[in-house]
Amino acid sequence: MRTLFVAALLFTSTAWAENASVNLGPGSVFADCADCPQMVVIPPGDFIMGFDGGVNEERYEGPPHPVSIGYSFAFGLLEITTAQFRQFVDETGYTAGTDCRLWTGKSVEHVPGKDWRDPGYGRPPRDDDPAVCISWYDAKAYVAWLAERTGQPYRLPTEAEWEYVAHDGGQTTHAWGEDPEAGCAEANYYDQSAAGLRPWEPVACDDGHPIVAPVGSLAKNDFGIHDVIGNVWEWVEDCHLVPYGPQPTDGSAHLVDGVCEKRGVRGGAWHSRATWQRPTFRGRDTEDFVTQVFGIRLVRDLN
Fold this sequence. Notes:
The chain is of the alpha+beta class and 303 residues long. The chain has helices at 82-92, 136-150, 159-167, and strands at residues 4-7, 16-20, 29-31, 39-42, 45-49, 65-69, 73-76, 101-103, 108-110, 154-155, 233-239, 263-266, 283-285, 294-295, 299-301.
């Protein structure tokens, strides 16, 4: 078994055991170094990916198809934070995307100078806020740096892996059940605390966070993961294809030869409507797209 720095299974009482060889069973939480992101072991499993519907033809979420993930993998306990992304930039000198897209009161527009250091919250981002204004290129650069730094196989999730974790062992319309109004214990989405910030109807519940929430503020899902739905969108590896075509059914990513016009992005955000919060909902944007609500979630392969 690979030697790891291992965190205690309870996120609220983390303890480190340097050079301890452990059996990483499903639900185990570990990190590859003292300041590395914490990862949760996800077991193999089968599920139905997709939904025969969507908010419009362009946003069709199907056709539904069976996926069998026959391997364990590690999924980030939390979204990558501002502090973690800052460490990467400080150590490498990397220049991330800028002129981030923000809601300006009437529409979403490029705002010169806005980036992950100042994503337009009206306050500086906190160290434990999820890093945002992150393009797919930026996410890939962070993953490559962490993989080189640790010698471990970090990468972005595949779309199938992400949806499997978001369903957290179930198959309900929403991760928390069938009621779109009942997700505030688990998901930071457009709710009563944010009412009036966007020109659409908030859900009836209140998650206590008008805008972005510090990572891990809300309840974990049944796989032990925070903020899979809501808070910020998370880039995936796949090249986006609607409807699903000859997709891999083993958990691997849908890739294309040559240029990929748009990459997948999943999970919704703090200002997203309930209809965008289903585990099956599929975002997609160009690889250089920089917006206030796009961030990073990691996966790490396991032996």
